[in-house]
Amino acid sequence: MFLIFRKKDKLKERLSFLRGKKITLSLKIGSIIVFILLFVGIFGSYIAPYSAVEMHVEHIKETASETFLLGTDRFGRDVLSRIIVGTRTTLIIALASTSLALTMGLIVGIFSAYYGKLLDNILMRVNDVFISFPGLIFAMLVIGVLGPGFLSGIIAIALIFVPGIARVARSATLNIVSLEFIDAARIRGESALYIVFCEILPNIYPTIIVEGCIRFSRAILLSASLSYIGLGPPPPTPDWGLMVSEERGYMLQNPWPVFGPCIAISAAVIGANLFGDGLRNIIVAKGSTRKL
Amino acid sequence: MDEVSIQHEPVLSVRDLDVAYFSLKGDIRAVRQVNIDMRPGEVLGLAGESGSGKSTIAYAILRYLPSNGRITRGNIIFQGKDVYQLNNKELTRLRGRKISLVPQDPLGSLNPSYRIGDQISEILRIHYGLPKKEAYEKTIEMLEQVNMPAPHMIAAKYPHELSGGQQQRVLIAMAFCTKPDLLIMDEPTTGLDVTTAARIIDLIIEMKQKYNSAILYITHNLGVINRLCDRVAIIYAGEIVEEGKVIDVFEKPCHPYTLGLLRSIPRINLDVAKEKLNVIEGFLPDLTDLSQSCIFSPRCLYSERRCFSEIPPLVHIGGNRSSKCFFYEKLADSTISVSESRGNIAKTESFFSDDKEILLKVDKLRKVYYSKKGALRAVDGSSFVCRGGEILGIVGESGCGKTTLAKCVVGLLDIDGGHILFNKQNIGVTYKKRSKELLQKIQMIFQNPDATLNPQKTVNQILSRPLALYKIVPKSRLRERVVELLESVHLNENYLSRYPHELSGGETQRIGIARAFAVLPELVICDEPISNLDVSVQAGILNLLLHLHDTYNITAIFITHDLNVVRHISDTILVMYMGKICEIGTPDDIFTPPYHPYTEALLSAIPIVQPNITQKKIRLEGSVPSPIEPVYGCVFHTRCPRKIGDICANTPPPEVEVSPSHVISCHITLKELMNVTPVFSFKNEK
Amino acid sequence: MGNRFTIFVLKRTGISIAILFAMSLLIFLMVQLIPGDAVDILLGGISEYSLGHETIEELRSQFGLDLPLHIQYLNWIKGVIRGDLGTSLVFNRPITPIILNRLTASLILAIPAAIMMIVLGLSFGVLAGVKENKLLDHFLSVSTLGAISIPTFIIGSIFIYIFAVKLGWIPAAFNAFDYREFSFLGKLTFFFSALIFPCLTLACEIVAHVARHTRASIIGELKTKYFRTAILKGASPRRAICYHALRNALLPAITVIAINIGYVIGGVVVIEVVFSYPGIGNLVLTAIKYRDVPLILSGMLVVSGGYVFANFFADVLYTLLNPRIRY
């Protein structure tokens, strides 16, 4: 019990920097949307009124009604359920790819900046080659090689992100590495691993987190675009981008199979963007001015 | 110094000014009840430490406060007109033409994308509508007036191609080219080398005599005010606490804050050394939460009950002076004599003795940085010894190699030649190759308070780590030991859970000192530990270092560019120039003849506060030569005022031993050097 | 000045070429990972047994697929330098004319979009930055947020829905009409109406990106000390902004514009799918879907090469404008 109290105090201490910081409207809206996204993503199948893949053959291409709140698609599947369960698809791809990219990019960036000289040169040249590919095009190539699917989508998006994140991590590390407390750690005899993980990393994780949020929103966008052009998880997986692409021809009869996922995608991306922006305001402001 | 100017109308009249900044916690009342009168041609110094509000006043006069700042009371009258009643057009015609500003950071204040000439001509084109050719000619003329060599070349360059001193001259040229009636200078020599700053101040005096502009000179350096200003206003936490002629105020201050400031500066009185400096205890008050009391009362040595319940008025006390203290009369009788309220005077005899063991021996150390442009010799064949228990001071201007030298000794840099012997063991390798025992014995205290501690760690974590790493104490005693460390640097256990951004500059440096001493080193290298701190805070840190040195008998190397400080704290002093050591000696040796010509120039350039000391004026022409060009003789020969001939350019100077403790590296004979007049002399001496 | 700058340009050209080679190698190696090779694809589902092992091996050597990898790579590169990009498996025609054709079509979309990005993006960014926190800024911030968050295919689909399906002002698909029959004016109107919305959709995202970054740059510039110097010199606010602040804000803007050229190249794929436009993006997509290996190789190389060139150009421009590097 006592331990829990101690932890709570530490948490309060950590969160105390929030006092007096501007928690903007964008942060509030963003957090709500992201929260909804996560919630629906995890519990989707329990909330959805119907199964996402079950075809109700008597109700093909119906408009919105009481039984099917947003109507049915050309196979008779409930559009609303597909959108709800589709959240998970998007979420998995976006979260997994962003996390993977953050980890790999961090390692490359930090060690490249810390060891400098030859390692830095080599890594950055290789990085330059990867960065010179336009994003979507490279993803297309990767998926072309691996074949469309969940995993290939995750890997493709992660690969596009790694060079950019590595650059951000590297430049953030370079800023820290020139500071004097790093020198103090060196002449204290600390090992390189200690310096990287205990001195450098705690100072750059705010930047990385903000970068991660922005990348997360871009991952949602990318995964939707990839599915739209036909390189995402194959049917019958409910996927927003795929739904927009497939149901295009029937927009006049029932706009919902197209507009529903459109709204979902847009809301998710906007929410993630707002969240990232608001987070940036808080995190950057943490280094407040010192009193004299 | 102009008697004529007293007759005229005041150029600037600041009446009862209150400036406040909006913040989430409440209004920050940065400036309160400030009254300033300036007559044409008068130089008024505005002296205060960081956070005192002096820059706020400057920008208020120019009507350029940031968006969250505003005047809440009072007004600013310039040449009869209220600055805040002017419309935008009149305001743009006023700025740059009648009132000019010379800002603090010259490189940041110049647009990096345009040439110097264009940026100066711009003013002339805006205010006088001069065509391009004429504007250019006038620009060259102004550059000549500020003593710029090769003005045509300078005009074609970009700001980043000029040195700090040259950039500041450009800004001064820009300020004076419209012959303004009022010039506001915001710490223009901060960040410049001592010798460069001295020349800039000379320039300002020259320009002031030529143009007869009124100058409001803002600084924290009382020595500069002594040189430059006619009158001085001392500002503390937004209020002017004392005002008067410089001579009067510095000789007989009438406010406890002024007294405290003057006592906290190391003095060059030639017969004392190493006594305790006066420290002003306490911190700046919270400007969002002020009460009806004297602003200085919580920190004042003379405060009484009355001071805590009433705000003292600014009282005119005759002779054109005013003071904001109820008890100014008490102070008017006191003196700032050194002996009063300072601690015991420590040993004055020279520390130098042959029989102390040599702890560190540096022999012909060389460190070269290789780049595309050539080989930059940061440290070029420097040799010296440091004995156990002594404090060795290394003094020099930027680029002289003192920091590089320190980093080589401590192992942050690789060396390219020579030896470093510590306890007779060769240690000329980087930290990666040094043993843990060796690393424990040599520690460092760093310069920049903002960068010296990990912002993501608490004080407890920062201090526990070295203790745990070297197992100085068992785990159970860890916290106890950390508290002991804190107390040894005059802090307490309340600091354990604080983060660096919650600490003041002085407190941060104390933690840095505690961290270095935690592992019980034998040698501590202090790399300009107080240069970035306020004057009154510096005194505290210096006292602390001396105290720790006495208690633990640790050997220290103290690096600084401030000669006053190095005199105060060192047993032996090294003077460095461009990677070489010019002179070694005790403080007495260094500050009295014979001098190395560079030392002589340095001493004549430092701004001193005591009005009763005269100082010779020796200035170095030209700029520091590039350290990439190979040098065959003495490194100083290109600028040496006492150069005797070609031998200085061709042959490296010999080491002349003046006394066992005193070595000068120069071609000039000892006899001639001994006959040089001293830089400092008392005005009243027989 | 001239000397140092020329050296820089030469060095940078060398680096770009090296990067291009490295990229070509990477593309080549990745394509090798595609299961099956050209012959398998060509034969479709016909199994080995029907044709016989030797026939298939003959086909392989005819395509040069039995040669060691590095020879195949070198042959390909030699071909590219000569201008011969090989033959498409899907279209069964030489690739070079196809690519040139499609590339031109995409450029017709991309270039006006890029011009809009520079002109509109910079202007909106400066306006928003100068009027920070006023109504205009909030409006621009919200609309740019929308533009970068809503995927291009959605914006494109909305445009189609409103203007083609509901209003009938523009053709819904490019190849739905046989435009060769129209008069000159007719052709012009047709092309314009067909191109305006793909172009606009493409421009949306990139204009918004550039505007947001420029806004941030300008706000930063307004806080610098040299901006303060300009105002305190007596410059009017307009002069201080247009002459002092803008000049320095251009530098990061160039970087952002270069990055967005990359978005354009990628985004053009999606646009071409939405509007069924026969451009190079669609070509590469088709190649990937059908595993047309020679076409994938050439298409990727051309597209990526374009991006490398754009980056090179941006780097040179940046150095030209930044005296701190040149001197």
Structure write-up:
The complex is a heterotrimer of chains A (292), B (686) and C (327). Chain A has helices spanning 2-15, 25-47, 79-115, 117-131, 135-146, 150-177, 180-187, 192-228, 240-246, 256-284. By secondary structure, chain A is mostly helical. Chain B is α/β, with parallel strands linked by helices and 686 residues long. The longest helix of chain B has 18 residues, at 194-211. Chain B is globular, with a radius of gyration of 26 Å. Residues 1-6 and 337-350 of chain B have low confidence and may be disordered. Chain C has helices spanning 2-32, 38-43, 48-51, 53-62, 69-82, 95-130, 135-149, 152-166, 184-222, 225-232, 237-274, 280-290, 293-321, 323-326. With 327 residues, chain C is an all-alpha fold.
Q: Which band does the percent of strand residues of chain A land in?
A: under 5%
In the predicted model, the low-confidence regions of chain B spanning at least 5 consecutive residues are 1-6, 337-350
**Helix/strand/pairing class of chain B, anyone?**
alpha/beta
Instruction: Summarize the main sheet of chain B.
Output: 8 strands, mixed
The Rg value of chain A, from CA coordinates, equals: 23 Å
Oligomer category: heterotrimer
What sort of overall outline of chain B do the alpha carbons produce when their principal axes are compared? globular
| Class computed from helices, strands and strand pairing of chain A | mainly alpha
How many individual helices of chain B? 22
Beta-strand percentage range of chain B: 15-25%
Question: What is the mean pLDDT of chain A?
Answer: 83
